[in-house]
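Supplementary Text 2. Reproducibility record for the structural model of the 127-residue chain.

All settings were left at their defaults, and a single model was retained for analysis rather than an ensemble. We include the record here because the model underlies the residue-level annotations in Supplementary Table 4.
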Amino acid sequence: MLEVAYILVALALIVFLVYLIITVQKLGRVIDETEKTIKTLTSDVDVTLHHTNELLAKVNVLADDINVKMATIDPLFSAVADLSLSVSDINDHARVLSKKASSAGSKTIKTGASLSALRLASKFFKK
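Retained model, structure tokens:
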């Protein structure tokens, strides 16, 4: 009976070792795939970083170009702002002049009407 127990223990140990060997082999394949994936990711990240550095260099050149062009255009915007102020001042003066001319015109009409009335009255009184 002890021999049967030893045989069962030995069989259980063999089954366990076979299962352990299969598991270790699968684990080895998983580790191999993981290493391949890490190598691929490393090379992809290197390529991506290289492209990113090139892109940043181009963006910096473009930003410098835009800054130079903006510095060239700034005096134009200042001139347009000054011109706008001048036109606004001219409009204000034109309104004031128009109001003065309008009031002067109404005074002239009143004066002309008064003179006409005086002439008519002087003709009437002469007779």
